[in-house]
Every structure is written in structure tokens, then in C-alpha cells.
Design a protein that fits this description.
Blueprint (H helix, E strand, L loop, with lengths): L2 E5 L2 E3 L5 E8 L4 E10 L6 E6 L5 E3 L7 E6 L4 E6 L8 E10 L6 E5 L3 E5 L2
Parallel strand pairs: 2-11
Antiparallel strand pairs: 1-3, 3-8, 4-5, 4-9, 5-6, 7-8, 9-10, 9-11
Length: 121
Amino acid sequence: QVNLVESGGGLVQPGGSLTLSCAATETIFVVRDMAWYRQAPGKSREWVATITEDHNTEYVDSVKGRFTISRDNTKNTMQLQMNSLKSEDSAVYYCKVKLTDYAMAWEHDAWGRGTQVTVSS
């Protein structure tokens, strides 16, 4: 019933910018918190940013001031604007969406398949 489609990854030079997008499709559920995670080779998956249903945002310290997370609740889409990219930002980026029913009787975390971001000169 739920599929998360990510786009926007690619190759960029240090100091450049990329915008990642994630869209939740075929869902009859309520989209609550939305978040971005990333995982570099040989490292564990790292939380990057979260945006709540009311547009409150939180970021991992390493991306504060450089990344901006946003969402469009009418379309169940999420974006991550990444500026001043560094080589250490290179990773596979995953979107995660928390879903509930309208009665909030259950919760489910849906994950995207990931999109590669490579920052290299």
C-alpha cells in the first residue's frame, strides 16, 4: 500500500548543492514525521534530519546551517536541500516516513530504497 520514491542523488563537487526528494504513494494512512537518514560504506546508518507534521525540524549537528528539510503535506512529499556539500556527506540517503491510522491505533515506518550522493572533486 505504501511506496517511497526517492530522487535527486548524484555526483557533485565540494561546495556544491543537491536537492533530494521523497514521495509517499498509494497510502490511505496519515503521514506523520518524515526524516532523512544516510549510510556511508563501512559505517552504520545515521539520522540526518526530521520534519514533523507541523513543520518542526531537527538536524544532526554536522549538517546544521547547510541542509534544509521541508515537506508538502498536500502531496505527502519531502525534500532535503543540501548546500555547501563536503566529501564526508557522501553516502546513500534514505527517506523514512512514519505512518499511522487516523485513530493512531498503530504506527508503521516506511523506508525508501536509497539514492546515492557522491561529493568529490
